[in-house]
Structure formats: structure tokens, C-alpha cells
Specification:
Layout lengths: L28 E3 L15 E4 L5 E3 L4 E9 L2 E8 L7 E6 L1 E3 L6 E2 L4 E5 L9 E8 L2 E3 L7 H4 L24
Antiparallel strand pairs: 1-2, 2-10, 3-9, 4-5, 4-8, 5-6, 6-10, 7-9, 10-11
Keywords: Signal
Pfam family, one: Peptidase_M23
GO molecular function, one term: metalloendopeptidase activity
Length: 172
């Protein structure tokens, strides 16, 4: 399930094959995926993740770099994900100063580049997108539920087991 307020939730047609976020360990989602009503309609075709300038950007899954260059003055990296059907899934990352080149094979977690300073719509952030062919999908769908949990793990008390005694710092 997607974190509150960040889009419609996972797409059941997308395999949850990512094992990490593209930036950080659990970045804040500044703006979620908002699918357009039609191909050229308004919407938000990806998610904006809070990320500092210079932060490493990592491939969320194994694949081949299908593009690494500049589009409209911003650095963009796109990775075609391995074994994800026909047409394959493709992730996009921007603004990124790429450290990879078109055609490079990348492993999950491999650094693709660094978040570059820009006049982006969400600076400082990383815009992360997902497509199958020309159709945009929610990139959060690539993450398994355990990576989407918004809170820390919590241990619950075990019934019938006494709580440990509190110590004031002195020993009896």
C-alpha cells in the first residue's frame, strides 16, 4: 500500500521487484503519482522523492541503461528493467548527473549518478518515473510492502512476562 497522500497505490500489473529506494533508505515523498485522465492530460507522471543535491541515485532493479543524457536542460537516466515483459518496464530518474552510459548493464543498487542541482519543479528532489512502453505507471508499485511501511518496527509486550526493573544508576 502506498504511503498516505502519495497516489492511488501499487499497480497489480507491476512486479514488486525493487529491493531499495533510488535515493536514501526511506526518502520522504514530496509528491505522489497522479495518473492523467488521458495521454496529454494534466497529472504527475512519477513521484518526487526528497533528496539532497549530490546524493547518489541507485538503480532499483537490474537492467540496461537505455538513456543517459540531457533532456530540456536536465540530466536524465532511464533503465530498462530485465525480465519484465514486452514491452519491458523502464524507470526514469531526474535530475541526475549520470555516471553510466547508454547500453551499460546495471545491477540492483548500482549507482547511476548523483542528484544534480537544478531549477526542477521540486528542488531538491529526485523525480522517479516508471513506464511500460508509452504508458506511465506508479513507480512505488516496484517496491515491496516492507519498503513502503512508513513507521519503524515496534515490539509489543509479551503477556505474562514481567517488565524489567528500572535502575536508578546505583547498584544494591
Amino acid at each position: 500500500m502506498a504511503p498516505p497522500g502519495v497516489g492511488p497505490g501499487p499497480d497489480p500489473t507491476v512486479p514488486a521487484l525493487a529491493r531499495q529506494w533510488p535515493v536514501g533508505t526511506r526518502p520522504l515523498v514530496r509528491r505522489g503519482y497522479e495518473p492523467p485522465a488521458h495521454a496529454y492530460g494534466p497529472g504527475h507522471r512519477g513521484v518526487d522523492l526528497i533528496a539532497a543535491d549530490g546524493a547518489p541515485v541507485r538503480a532499483v532493479a537490474a537492467g540496461r541503461v537505455s538513456f543517459a543524457g540531457r533532456v530540456a536542460g536536465r540530466g536524465v537516466v532511464s533503465v530498462e528493467l530485465a525480465d519484465t515483459g514486452d514491452p519491458p518496464l523502464r524507470t526514469t530518474y531526474e535530475p541526475v548527473a549520470a555516471s553510466v552510459s547508454q547500453g551499460d548493464e546495471v545491477a540492483a543498487g548500482e549507482v547511476l549518478g548523483a542528484v544534480e542541482p537544478s531549477g526542477s519543479h521540486c528542488a531538491p528532489c529526485l523525480h522517479w518515473g516508471l513506464l511500460r512502453g508509452d504508458v506511465y505507471l506508479d513507480p512505488l508499485s516496484l517496491l515491496p510492502p516492507w519498503l513502503l511501511d512508513s513507521g519503524p518496527s515496534r515490539l509489543l509486550p509479551v503477556l505474562g512476562v514481567p517488565l524489567p526493573e528500572e535502575h536508578s544508576g546505583s547498584r544494591p
